[in-house]
Amino acid sequence: MEMYVTNRTSRCSSEVIMVGEGGMSLRSKQRAAPSDGSHLQFSQYSASVMASSSALYSYRSEVIPSTSPVVSASISVTSLRKTSQRGEHGRVSGWLETMKAASPPRSARSKVGDLFRSKQLLEAQYMEWATKHPSALAIFDKLMEVAKGKQIVLFLDYDGTLAPIVEDPDEAYMSDAMRAAVKKVATLIPTAIISGRRSDKVYEFVQLPELFYAGSHGMDIVGPADGFTGLEADGLRSRDEKRKEAVCYQPASEFLPMINEVYKALEEHAKNILGAKVEHNKFCATVHFRRVEEENWQLLAQEVQRVVKRYPNLCVTQGRKVLEIRPSIQWDKGKAVNYFLQTLDLGNCNNILPVYIGDDRTDEDAFHVVNQKHNGYSILVSSAPKATSATYSLNNPSEVMEFLLRLVKRCQTFGEARV
Ligand SMILES: O=P(O)(O)OC[C@H]1O[C@H](O[C@H]2O[C@H](CO)[C@@H](O)[C@H](O)[C@H]2O)[C@H](O)[C@@H](O)[C@@H]1O
Fold this sequence. Notes:
Blueprint: E1 2-7, E2 13-19, E3 25-31, E4 41-42, E5 44-51, E6 57-64, E7 71-72, H1 80-83, H2 88-102, H3 106-109, H4 112-132, H5 140-147, E8 151-156, H6 176-188, E9 191-194, H7 199-206, E10 212-215, E11 220-224, H8 237-240, E12 246-249, H9 256-270, E13 277-280, E14 285-288, H10 297-308, E15 314-319, E16 322-327, H11 333-343, E17 352-358, H12 363-372, E18 377-381, E19 392-394, H13 397-414
Parallel strand pairs: 4-7, 8-9, 8-17, 9-10, 17-18, 18-19
Antiparallel strand pairs: 1-5, 2-3, 5-6, 10-11, 11-12, 13-14, 14-16, 15-16
Bound molecules: ligand L263DTV3.
């Protein structure tokens, strides 16, 4: 099956078909909302997506910078709402078929021989994929050679990157060892966490005032004021106690009442589906499928559709066994990366090297920006072959920690992480 994604200019129609973890797929066609009037512009991009029946998938993408000095691209704005134009049932069925193809019934998985063969197959597929996305640990010295004399700026996703994926999103704790590694690196390199969660929730997990935070997929930014350097960041406390020194950027602030309303409606609609959970991520609402029996996924997706179609200014994006309902504005994790770089006064600096580490589809926006605009390092965290524009890979959060510690050691030895 071959799938195409196209998107041109900031006021455009886009058609996206995606296959994700557990084979979740979604197809939609929508008109993007007008620009929010910020200094950032949407660029052109095109990509093709290919997926095999075994739910292995990959895509090639290309970003064509506009003439604007600040360019970024988005790939993930999809809408279940518009799906209804093509027939909701057909679309949801297609989505479920792909999802089930990636999760064969337990009986089929239980045979030892089958398990062994599929493990071997997966390993071979991973190795092939890893030749295209080399391990950032394996080529660490080479990466650092290129970084010599450059200001590294570090961007980290949270779930699946700093903390392992778990069943209950309220229990996605990072380890103390990871916290210590992030703390060390943040004392040497300007570091920000860009998460889909609400920023206060991420801060609750991370507990490090040394960092900058952007929650709600970059729609809730706590960053440095002009002339404020990365090493002086004071986490979320800057919001209350050091307001003068911090900048809060919330490009979707007018959507807050709407998201509150949608959250309540989703909770109401999902309450009778066993295992379903709705999370309020401030500027988006996240519906969790992970603990829902597969036979109820369709029901839950239909409930989401039912709610979202009442809100023409909202759209649905996908993550790891989640559907996320968010404002249809042109803002994403990639824009948040640019925002941080600009407020750190590094946006137009040739001497910077942004490093972005993330595991999910919404991180792809940031990978694009880091690759195309800044020639930086984009690193996907994944233990399975995955569609990505990230150049490099790390297998899991433990490898992320190892990477951070090597970065620390390297900075301490050479003192070159900051210009
Ligand atoms: O951008 P991120 O920091 O990666 O946040 C994306 C979503 O992460 C969380 O959900 C994911 O992790 C959960 C805990 O491991 C897991 O149960 C869920 O299936 C994953 O999708 C978070 O709960 C969401 O709100 C974030 O949007």
